[in-house]
Amino acid sequence: MLPSEFRTAFRNRLLIPHPQLLAHTTCSCGKEADPYGIHLQKCRLAGNLTNATHNNLVACLAEMIRHCGQSVRVEVSGIFNNVDPSSNQRMDLVVYDPGRSNALYDVVVTNPVSQEVLTSNCVNTSATRVQEQVKVPRYRDAAFRAGMTLHGLAIEVYGAWGNDFNNMFTHFISLGAVVTNIPKAILANYWRRRISVCLQRGVANAINTRTNKLTLGP
C-alpha cells in the first residue's frame, strides 16, 4: 500500500475528514463532495475505480480459495444456461467441489455510513446483512434449478463481514489448514489481513484518484 493510500485508508477507518477534500463542496458529477470521501468512494463518474475495488477483492478471494485446495473460476458468464438458454448471468466466483453441487458466490462491497450515521455518530450494523439478503433472492431460484447453491458475500468498506462471508471464510480456511498443514489460526490471520488490505487499498485509491481530478479540473 502506498503512503498516500495508507493515509486515506487510516482516515476512512476513523471517520476523519480528508483535508484534501475540505476545499471541494461539489463533485464533478454535480453531487455533494463530503469531506469524508463517502461519495467519492462510489461516484458514478470513473466507475472503473469502483469496479476495480470489487474485482480486486474477488480476485483475492479466488486466490485464497485456490490456496486452500479448491478449484474456482472468476466472473463466469452464462452460469444458468442449462435452465435458461437466454440467460447471460455472470457470477463472481464459482467453486467446483467433486461430488457436491457447485457453489456460487456473488460479492458486494457496501458502505454502511449514511448522513444519519455521520450526524448521530451511531453505527449501521445491518448494512452487510441487508446486502446479502438483496443478493441471494435475485438468483436463488435459478441456482437451485441449475443444481447449485448460491451465497451473497457482503463486506463493508470499514471491515465488517456479513454472515455468509464469515461462513465462506471459515469453510475454506478449515479446508486449507488440512491441505497446507498450516495451523488454522495462522492461516485465518494471514488471509484476513490480505482481504483487508485489498479492500482498503481499492477504496483509498478511488477517493484519491477522484480527488485529484477535482483538484486538477477537466
Write the layout of secondary structure elements.
Layout: H1 3-14, H2 38-42, H3 47-67, E1 71-76, E2 91-96, E3 103-110, H4 115-120, H5 127-145, E4 149-156, H6 163-180, H7 184-216
Helix pairs in contact: 1-7, 3-7
Structural class: alpha+beta
- Average of per-residue pLDDT values: 81
General form: globular
The level 1 CATH classification of the domain at 48-199 is Alpha Beta
Characterization of this structure:
Strand 2 (91-96) and strand 3 (103-110) form a beta hairpin. This protein has helices at residues 3-14, 38-42, 47-67, 115-120, 127-145, 163-180, 184-216; strands at residues 71-76, 91-96, 103-110, 149-156. Mean pLDDT is 81; it is low at 120-125. The protein has a four-stranded mixed beta sheet. Helix 1 packs across helix 7 (184-216). By secondary structure, the chain is of the alpha+beta class. It has a domain at 48-199: Trna Endonuclease, Chain: A, domain 1 (3-Layer(aba) Sandwich).
What structural keywords apply?
218 residues, alpha+beta, Trna Endonuclease, Chain: A, domain 1, 4 strands, 13% strand
Question: In short, what is this structure?
Answer:
The protein is globular and about 60 Å long. It is 52% helix and 13% strand.
